[in-house]
Amino acid sequence: MHFQQAPPALGNQYDDDRVLRSYLRRVFPADVLVEIEESLREMGRLAGGELYELQLADRLNEPVLTQWDAWGNRIDQVELTPLWRVAERIAAEHGVVATAYEQKHGSLSRVHQCALAYLFTPSTDIYSCPLAMTDGAARTLLTSGNQQLIDRAVPHLITRDPREFWTAGQWMTELTGGSDVGLSETIAKPQEGGFRLYGRKWFTSAISSQMALTLARPEGNPPGGRGLALFYLETRDEHGRPRNIQINRLKDKLGTRKVPTAELTLDGTPAQLVKGTTDGVRNIAPLLNITRLWNGISAVALMRRGVALSSDYARKRVAFGAPLSEKPLHLDTLATLHAEAEAAFHLAFYVAELAGQSETREISDDDALLLRVLTPVMKLTTGKQAVMVASEVLETFGGAGYVEDTGLPVLLRDSQVLPIWEGTTNVLALDTLRALQSGENDPQRGLVRFAAAVTRCLENVRDARLADAVRVARTALDHATSWLAEAERVGLLALEAGARRFSLTLGRTIELALLIKHAQWSHDHEHDGKAIASARRFAASGINLISDHDADDLSELL
Ligand code: MFK
Question: Which ligand 1 atom lies nearest to the CA of residue 170?
Answer without folding.
Answer: 9
